[in-house]
Amino acid sequence: RSSYSCCYFVLPCCFFDFHGKYSRRQSKKTQYREYLDFVAQIGFVCGFRVEEDCLRIPSTKRVSFIGKSRTYPAAEHALVDKQITQFINSRQTCAVAMWDRRVGFNHEDDCGGLCKEAGSEPHEDETETAGTIWMPGFQPREKVEQVRNCASLPRDFVDEVVLNVANLLLNAAPQKSCSDKQGGNMSTWNQGESLSLREVAEHLDKEILKKLKSEYGGLQTLLKNNHQVFEVLNGRVHIRDWRKEKPPSKTKPEVKRRLSAEAFKTRLCWFFIHHPDGCSLPSEACPYAHGTEELR
C-alpha cells in the first residue's frame, strides 16, 4: 500500500492474522498450507500477481511469496486501496472463505455480501487517514524488545537468590546425604532436600519476589537458568548432583568425544566455592573450574 511501484517478498512463518492469531477454516489442508494460501490471498487482494517459490534454507517453513507486478493500472490505485481497507475490516466482521488459488478470489461472493455491507461505507476518520493510518488501533511491537527471561537481571541479585535457595534446600532437613561408593570411597555429600516452588517462594524476601514477578516465569525461570546448581522437576526444586548426570553418548563420533573431553572450563564451580561439602566430582571430572587456575 505504500506505493504503486513497490514490490514485496514474504516468508510466512508464525500463524497470525491482522488482529491476532490466525483461525483455521479448512480441515482438509495442513495448517501450514492453509496459512500459505491466506498470505497469498492477501497479495492477490492487494492487486499483485503473486508468485510462489521454495527457498533453499534448512527450515521446514521455506515457502515464500513474491509480488513484482500489479494486476491493475496505476490510475486505479486509490480504488484498490479502499478495497484493501474493506478486506482488512472483513477479517474481524465475518468469516472469509479461503481463496481457491486455481479460481482466484471474489471478495463479495466469499463473504456473502456481509463484507461489502460492513466496509462499503467507511467511517470519516478511516477515509481521511487512508493514506497514513492503514489499520486504526494497530499496535506494533517496540523497536527494542525488553528481555524478560531473567537473563538481564543484575549478576549480584541472581547470585544472592541462588545462594539463598541453595542454603534453604541444604538446611531444610537433617543431612540428607548420598554416599559415593566409587573406588570404595564412602564419603558423604549433602544433597539437601527438595521443596516445591511455592515453599521456596514463601522463604524469600518480598522485595526479591517483587523483582522476579516482572520477569517471565519468575523464580522458576531464574532457577532453571542456573542449571549448574538446580534441577526443577514437576514443580519441585532439587540441588543438582552431577554424579547422576548421564555420561556422554558412546555413539558420538570420536572427534566430538575428544573435543568434549578437552573442553575449556570457562566458569567456576558453584559447589566448589559455596557447598559445605565442596563439589561431588573430582576436578578432572567436573565440567566447571575448581579454582581460578583452571579457568581458560
Automatic annotation (TrEMBL):
Source organism of the structure: Vidua chalybeata (Village indigobird)
GO molecular function, one term: tRNA(Ser) (uridine(44)-2'-O-)-methyltransferase activity
Name the record gives this protein: tRNA (uracil-O(2)-)-methyltransferase
GO biological process: tRNA methylation
Reactions it catalyzes: uridine(44) in tRNA(Ser) + S-adenosyl-L-methionine = 2'-O-methyluridine(44) in tRNA(Ser) + S-adenosyl-L-homocysteine + H(+)
InterPro entries, per database record: tRNA_uracil_MeTrfase, Znf_CCCH
Enzyme Commission number: 2.1.1.211
Signal peptide (UniProt feature, chain positions): none
Domain of life from the UniProt record: Eukaryota
Key word Nucleus present: no
UniProt keyword tRNA processing present: yes
Location, primary (coarse class): cytoplasm
Sorted UniProt keywords: Cytoplasm, Metal-binding, Methyltransferase, S-adenosyl-L-methionine, Transferase, tRNA processing, Zinc, Zinc-finger
Family: Belongs to the TRM44 family.
Domain C3H1-type: 263-293
Gene Ontology cellular-component terms listed: cytoplasm
Protein role: Adenosyl-L-methionine (AdoMet)-dependent tRNA (uracil-O(2)-)-methyltransferase.
